[in-house]
Amino acid sequence: MTTILVLVEHQNGVAKRASLEALGAANALGGTTVAVLFGAGAADAAKTLGAARALTVDLDAWSPDRAAATIAEAIAAHSATGFLAASTSTGRDVAPRVAALCDVPLYSDCTALAAGANGVEITRPWLAGKLIAKLAPSSAIVVATLRRNCFALAEEGAPEVESLAPVGEPKATLTNVEAKAGGKLDVAEAAVVVSGGRGMKEPEHFHLIEELAAAFGNAAVGASRAVVDAGWRPHAEQVGQTGKTVSPQLYIAVGISGAIQHLAGMKTSATIVAINKDADAPIFKLADFGIVGDAFEILPALTEAVKAARAEG
Ligand code: FAD
């Protein structure tokens, strides 16, 4: 039977959604799933995870090198055939180091995994999503990062929890994290994303995007690179090849033309709605629902409609 290790990130003793998806992906492959958690609150976050075992590692300061060395050692100790992490900044920091220590390739930003006759079969976008690659790794250990919102969450469980001592030397440690002002929902974490582009004309008009996002209750504001480069919105909101990759349940693109670099960051969203006054805008080729018209007329009406629908329950 195969064993797969999964990096489970957590905050204040609660596992992150993206990590629960990685755990769900590992469980769906069958075999034994072992969660690995680092730092304070790891034991609390481990208690209800849907994994056979949870390894908690006490790191006084976060170090991707030590995390990777500890995981690589645990892979060897468990004779594991896989290591999965979410495609978060932490996952992207740790997984390549684990792959290097195990001397195997890294499969990054995977959108699907399946158990095939000869091992795990991987699906991942290539060339900013222009191609979808199906890969059949031949390495003894498969190390992969998984795109958010592409995998079902693991159900809760009661793993056997074991505490591990960290190994390796830190080359760099994290000394401080400053919370983003306003505590806004991260565009990469949100179930609904409302993004605005140059069609919003001026930064002052983004209140219309913010109001629609607020009406949903669980939505984040996103932006195209054009408006980020113009200084209208912070880079943290940029969606696309050089911004964040999002895959929410609902993505609403307002006044965004649909350049390939933007699509690369949102094309795996479950439902895509585009609002654009140009009926020939490329975004409509990808959109599930398109509204051709002026964003300044449509946004207030849509916001009212969402509020009314939510009030009705
Ligand atoms: P535009 O292309 O100018 O589109 C504006 C749209 O608004 C038009 O379709 C127009 O019809 C519509 N519009 C105008 N007025 C209204 C109105 N009143 N109501 C409704 N619609 C209206 N872009 C990204 O977004 N993310 C990236 O990460 C990214 N990375 C890049 C990396 C590289 C290497 C390069 C070369 C480019 C990258 N870009 C990225 C830029 C990308 O190519 C586009 O230039 C950018 O996405 C365009 O932004 P936009 O759609 O907001 O603007």
Helix-strand makeup class:
alpha/beta
In total, how many beta strands? Answer: 17
Beta content comes to 25-35%
List low-confidence stretches. Answer: none
**How would you spell out the order of helices and strands?**
EEEHEHEHEHEEEEEEEHEHEHEHEH
Task: Order the strands across the largest sheet as they lie in space.
Answer: 7-11-6-1-4-5-12
CA(first)-CA(last) distance: 46 Å
Mean pLDDT: 94
Question: How would the global form be characterised?
Answer: elongated
> What small molecules accompany the polymer chains?
flavin-adenine dinucleotide
Helical residues, percent: 25-40%
Report on the architecture of this protein.
By secondary structure, the protein is α/β, with parallel strands linked by helices. Helices cover 27% and strands 27% of the residues. It has helices spanning 17-28, 42-46, 64-77, 89-102, 207-216, 225-229, 260-263, 283-286, 295-312; strands at residues 3-7, 10-11, 14-15, 32-38, 53-57, 82-86, 106-110, 112-116, 119-126, 131-135, 142-146, 160-164, 192-196, 219-223, 250-254, 271-276, 289-292. Helix 8 (283-286) links the parallel strand 16 (271-276) and strand 17 (289-292). Helix 3 (64-77) crosses helix 4 (89-102) and helix 5 (207-216) packs parallel to helix 9 (295-312). The chain binds flavin-adenine dinucleotide. Residues 197-199, 224-227, 238-243, 255-257, 259, 261-262, 265, 275-278, 281, 294-296 line the site of flavin-adenine dinucleotide.
Structure characteristics:
5-stranded parallel beta sheet, 9 helices, binds flavin-adenine dinucleotide
